[in-house]
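>> Question from a student workshop board

For tomorrow's exercise we were told to take the sequence and the ligand below, predict the bound structure, and bring the output to class. My setup keeps failing. Could a helper post the expected result so I can at least see what it should look like? The ligand is zinc ion.
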Amino acid sequence: MTQRYLDVQGLSETDKQDKKRTRFVVLSDTHNRHNELEIPDGDVLLHCGDFTTQGLLHHVVSFNKFLGRLPHQYKVVIPGNHERWPDFIRPLLSNCHFLCDDQIEINGIKIYGSRWKPRISSLSAHYRNAKRTFQDVPTNTHILMTHQPGKGISTLCGQEGNQAITDRVLEIKPLVHICGHEHDCAGHYQNNGITFIKAAIIDGHRTGPLRPPYFFDIYL
Ligand SMILES: [Zn+2]
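>> Workshop helper replied:
Here is what the output should look like for this input. Compare the format with yours to find the bug.
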């Protein structure tokens, strides 16, 4: 399986001197097929949700064991729409930091992980609710993780985007915004100094082929 490296800071070799490198490996939408993957080495593994199918408990246990076997020093995971009761499964995820509208700092790098926002009543009510929630994403965030993509933020296809995410991303300008959810149109896109990664590992249907993980470095 080939691997996909992204340069997210565009630093010269001189710029990198005297800075500490932290390497991130990105997964999303593995839907219980984590054991089939070849995972690049790195310091931090990020998973953007949908690591199970329907949040089944034995899938959560299997995923947690998989995380425990990986050599990465830190693992940061958020729930997708399949992990519909994140507070219920949290005790089973002992091998990661499970973020639900929380921030964690690793080597000075601030990572914010969003909880899945279920659609409520109408699209406009959903937008207002999500808008309020995403206002809580700190302005100093380096890496933003949301399971749902932002709407219209890139040339990558997809109809499932959320305008509230796009609005906040453009306000706070993180170095990297990672999402998943749309299996058919994964990829990456760089604009405004932001690297957008749609990181779904599963390509199309859940029994379909698997994409290789992205990975990137941040120098601070
Ligand atoms: Zn999915």
